[in-house]
Amino acid sequence: MTAAVSLPAFPAPLHWLNEPEQWSVDGDDALVITAAAGTDLFSDPGEPNRYANAPALVGRLDGDFTLSARVRLDLLSTFDAAVLLLHADGDRWAKFCLELSPQGTPTVVSVVNRGVSDDCNSMPMRGDDIRLRVSRVGSAFAFHIAEGDGPWSLIRYFALDGDPEVGFLAQSPTGDGATVRFEDIQYTPKRLSDLRNGE
């Protein structure tokens, strides 16, 4: 078990699921993670391939909450991604990604894993100021995305068994590695009143 990591914007101790190449906490609300080449978290639904070596920093948040971050990375290789992660165990997890598609486009991707991965590409992104958010709403979870200071758009609303930890992941499955910067990390201990009104 690695030593706990403190991030002032995150109100609980964090720990690594997999150690990164490099990492740093910058100020109160920024985290940088460098993933090595060939790192991923994915269980292919059509093949026996399972990958669980991407570096992820997670901690436990109780009750309803929202956790958001502005993500910055150079998307150089297919499936390089910045990720907000929910992780109950090796079979039960969910990730919300800004990921480079095979077509070379930054794309919003969500994956819910219940033994195998349910992989969904939602929309391409053209801007370079992207925020990701994960929320717990009672027994369910929601993924939202926003561009700049624009409204939040619902991408996915789902249940996940277990009591997942939440945090941050970087991946580079086909590339030589990727460095992800999570900025303006914000935690709010409250329940979203409406998943679809942009709040």
From TrEMBL:
Organism: Nonomuraea glycinis
Pfam families, per database record: DUF1349 (PF07081)
Identification of the protein by name: DUF1349 domain-containing protein
